[in-house]
Amino acid sequence: MSLRNRIAIAALTGLSLVMTLALVPMTYGQEAKTAAPTPSAASKAPDYVEEKGFKGKIFEIKYRDPFGLLQVIRPLGSGFKGATTSVDREFKTLTVRDFPENIAAIEEAIKRLDTPQAPRPDIEFSVHVLIASNSAGGSEDFPAELGDVVKQLKSALKYKSYTLMTSGIHRAKEGPGDVGNSGVAESNVFSSVPTPPNPIFYEYSLNSISIDSGSGAPTVQVGSFHFNMRVPLNLGASVQYQNVGFRSPVGLRQGEKVVVGSTTMGDKGLVVVVSAKLLK
Predict the structure, then answer these.
(1) Does the predicted model carry a pTM greater than 0.90?
(2) pLDDT tens-digit profile of 222-254?
(3) Could you tell me which residues come within 8 angstroms of residue 67 by beta carbon, excluding any fewer than 6 positions away?
(4) Segments of the chain assigned to CATH 3.30.1370.120
């Protein structure tokens, strides 16, 4: 082999060695990047909880509304991911899945809150609708129990006589529902009724009823008393019905007769008197 060939082989061998050494750091860097450690459990979301830390329990609700009770005990839960509290109204149960200490707190709250309630009395409402007139010599016809009320009305309003249009007695309980009545009044109670006479329709309702015993003697609170009457008006050759009435909240002490509202129609007036009695 000639000297020139030997020099060429040595040069190629050195170049190969340099290239091999140059590739080593790159391969090392790639391996280091691939071998990076996975995130630890501590880096997970702060509300992350392993399911094995939870327990579950079903509570039977005997006396209270489960949905109402749920609103009270909900803040006692941990609030962590996977913790739940559910209600079944048909079976009257609360199902809780949470940490044992939270379940214990909820159980203690249910024991204190799910207790028998004292029986609440029924309420008997008496509703009287009076028609007031200012005509001379007008007749008066109303229950004797309204004598004092009519006397006060005569001193407060311009009308001289009062006649009972209708009365109603209604039994109700506390709650958001309503109780009421509707009917047809006599056609001659207002002079504005056309001839031949057309019917006069009326309706009233008492809504959102409760008993307030905070001030000693119990008071019946009616969130809204609504009275409406549809009166026919003679407009030439046609008859048109006009709605008249009022809506108002009212508080009633037992046995007290309260004028809850009044309105006028032509030359007559209408006054509604309500009283309440608690029934044991």
Answers:
(1) no
(2) 999 999 999 887 787 888 888 999 999 999 998
(3) 87, 89
(4) 45-113
Q: b/e for 232-264, b at 16 or more Cβ within 10 A? A: bbeeeeeeeeeeebeeeebebeeeebbbbbbee
pLDDT at 235: 80
Report the run of H or E that residue 262 belongs to, with start and end: strand 257-265
Would you state the structure tokens that stand for residue 46, as one six-digit string?
């702060």
Say if strands 175-185 and 268-279 run parallel, antiparallel, or are unpaired. unpaired
pLDDT tens across 192-229, in order? 555 556 788 999 999 999 998 877 788 999 999 999 99
Strand order in the sheet with 175-185: 175-185, 200-212, 219-235, 238-253
In 3-state terms, what secondary structure has residue 85?
strand
Distances 42 to 34, 45, 49, 131 between C-alpha atoms, Å:
22, 8, 11, 80
Q: What is the dihedral of CA 139, 143, 145, 149, to 10 degrees?
A: -40
pLDDT, tens only, 100-126? 999 999 999 999 999 988 787 899 999
Q: Name the burial class of residue 229, with classes exposed (0-12), middle (13-18) and buried (19+) by CB atoms within 10 angstroms of its CB.
A: buried
The rounded distance, in Å, linking the Cα atoms of 210 and 221 is 5
CATH class of 45-113: alpha beta
Give me the sheet containing 122-133, strands edge to edge.
Answer: 161-172, 122-133, 268-279, 257-265
Please answer whether residues 171 and 122 qualify as being in contact, where contact means their C-beta atoms are separated by less than 8 angstroms: yes
